[in-house]
Amino acid sequence: MAYNIIKQISLFCIALIGILLFVSCENDLNEVNKIEHIEAEEAVDISKDVKIIYSDSARVKAQLTGPEMRIYHDTSGNRNSNYEFQKGLQIIFYDDQGVESQRIKSDYGIQRAKEEVIEFKKNVVITMANGSIIRTEEFIYDQANKKYYNKVPITFEMKDGRGNFQGTSFTSDENFNNIRAENMSGYYIPSNQSAFPSFGR
Questions:
Q1: Which of 11, 36, 44, 119 has its CA 20 to 30 A from that of 125?
Q2: What pLDDT is recorded for position 198?
Q3: Are 110 and 122 in contact, with CB atoms under 8 Å apart?
Q4: Does position 171 have pLDDT exceeding 60, yes or no?
């Protein structure tokens, strides 16, 4: 009887040790997988005080500045790296004569290479050459279709306070010449010369 009890206890201890070793190994494997996942996700280069100039045919088209840029490298080899600006950024666009045509400023931004979109978020302010301003909390640029859009409230402030509009969402061409806003409301004081692009619904 005593032998059977000892035998049962021994088998129980062996089983328990086996379970503990299995759990321990599983936890170790989970930790390894987690670390590998983090390393894959955090394959990142960080640059400070960034200034990037985009030019075409020796003409400056845009200038991007920001206190920090993070490049998340695509580990699949498809060259789909993402560029993130956790501390904000500003992009100034120039026309063919080198005159500023518009600027975009936000507290956060990211370029998603695979999706071909650039997202501006938090305190987004778009200033046009004529002084008109667009404010919103989210602003997305579709690089493939060359258009801007969002799905959150947006405010349009016209130059000299002659108009103020609010909308629940909008789309626009990349030059802001044709803006289409949803559920738009506000006021407008006409003048001889329009200070804001045309609106549609």
A1: 44
A2: 52
A3: no
A4: yes
User: Do 104 and 90 meet the contact criterion of CB atoms below 8 Å apart?
Assistant: yes
Each residue of 98-142: pLDDT tens digit?
A: 899 999 999 999 999 888 999 999 999 999 888 889 999 999 999
Partnered with residue 68 across adjacent β-strands are: 48
Residue 131 in tokens: 């002084």
Compute the half-sphere exposure of residue 158: CA atoms within 13 Å on the CB side of its CA. 19
| Burial of residue 81, with CB atoms counted within 10 A of its CB: 0-12 exposed, 13-18 middle, 19 or more buried | middle
Question: Phi/psi at 116 (nearest 5 deg)?
Answer: 60, 45
If DSSP codes are grouped into helix, strand and coil, which group holds residue 129?
A: coil
DSSP three-state, residue 157: strand
Cα–Cα distance, 102 to 104 (Å, whole number): 7
Residue type, 48: K
Whole-angstrom Cα distance, residue 191 to residue 196? 11
The SS3 assignment for 13 reads helix
Query: Residues, the chain, total?
Result: 201
Supply the pTM of this predicted model.
0.69
Nearest partner of 103 among 54, 58, 63, judged by Cα: 63
